[in-house]
């Protein structure tokens, strides 16, 4: 299906195009070729093709959605997708004036992108691409077909584009966090003595799915073990459970960690979780618009350094949105490989952060809290703010 350019896309464009134009200008980009699922979803106003939501490969190739967006020229925007997406357009039309729902792989998608760039007079422009999300065969085709174009890494520009959340995005992130929290607490209450890690993970998947979230992963520990992979290990009386889950709601990530106990926590466990909570609260106290990202990190790390659990406890914070670990990037290579480019920049209203403190205790096990907060002008709003103490297992 090919839909010809329309006359006025500005009235329906689903993002702040003036801000995106400004970011493109600062990055020296004339036209974008967005090819990742998360950035195409953002630029399409939340749309993601369900057929490829959990996979990419088909036949000898893979799904490659492409959004073409020209700086200052939304009337020249195009979406290049799979042939089956024509039906999606019939039901809920895409905003882009041009649609090519005609592809089955990477090369036909890249060919259509080249044709469109040439048609709008951008065959020799500065073209922003996503190197980590542009297959080598598609890149090679574009490079050969447009020898006079300059291909520019647009990754940082696109991350900055998504860093400030809209009201609708914040609500989706809140919903995702609430659904994940409810699911984890229900799973802890359901699990009993003898329940295995594999069974617990499967129960969590059901809980999240039944609540309307898309399950992505569960990192789980029982007892003194620090191993978070699924296994036949069974929960025993008096042992702790650390349940860390990521799922999404309409593409937006919920990523939290809560603690369970089979029985009643003793004084040592209460004290250990309180140490973790103290670091979390220290970080929260520095979250507000205008505070340097690095100031929040250093303050929480300073509180942790003075704690008796410091030798075996770690603090970490990162941005959240359509993906986990997105802008703002606050810490360098800790543990995900990227530079903490936002450490010296002020936090901005409607940024969303994941804040996590992890203790690897030699005998009591893996003790962790992970929370999601949105930056406000005066502080923060926490999403999924429940179950942050010791939650009892076997009570459902």
From TrEMBL:
PANTHER family: AMINOPEPTIDASE, AMINOPEPTIDASE YPDF. CDD domains: APP_MetAP (cd01066). InterPro entries: Creatin/AminoP/Spt16_N, Creatinase/aminopeptidase-like, Creatinase_N, Pept_M24, Peptidase_M24B. Residues 171-377 form the Peptidase M24 domain. This is Peptidase. It comes from Mesorhizobium temperatum. Residues 18-164 form the Creatinase N-terminal domain. It comes from the Bacteria. Gene3D superfamilies: Creatinase/methionine aminopeptidase superfamily, Creatinase/prolidase N-terminal domain. It holds the Pfam family Creatinase_N. SUPFAM superfamilies: Creatinase/aminopeptidase, Creatinase/prolidase N-terminal domain.
